[in-house]
Task: inverse folding
């Protein structure tokens, strides 16, 4: 079964800012996976640094066959990603979003030391 991985905005621009290849890293962690992102995350990524990454983000989406889902619901991209974190493994380096997802008991994929990905397990509320 394929792992469903939802990319946050920062994962859409990371390959252009860091010395890592997302494709190789996701293959290493999950040989069978499908990448997704939200239309709002794509728009955010395209607007970073005055649109510097716009064309690059489109190329990345095509190259990695990332399925762009229509944004449903209201709120920030972070709120929407939190809402889907029980159905998708969210990939983000946003500190607050990582904490919120882990607090819900869900794991998160993060970029570690700018050169590889790591899965951080969700926290459970134990008495």
Result:
């Amino acid at each position: 079964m394929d792992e469903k991985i939802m990319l946050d905005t920062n994962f859409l621009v990371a390959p252009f800012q860091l010395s890592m290849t997302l494709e190789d890293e996701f293959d290493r962690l999950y040989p069978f996976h499908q990448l997704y992102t939200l239309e709002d995350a794509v728009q955010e990524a395209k607007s970073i640094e005055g649109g510097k990454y716009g064309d690059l983000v489109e190329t990345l989406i095509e190259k990695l066959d990332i399925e762009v889902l229509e944004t449903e619901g209201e709120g920030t991209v972070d709120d929407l990603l939190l809402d889907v974190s029980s159905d998708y493994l969210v990939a983000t380096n946003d500190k607050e979003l990582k904490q919120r997802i882990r607090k819900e008991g869900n794991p998160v994929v993060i970029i570690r030391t700018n050169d590889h990905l790591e899965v951080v397990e969700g926290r459970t509320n134990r008495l």
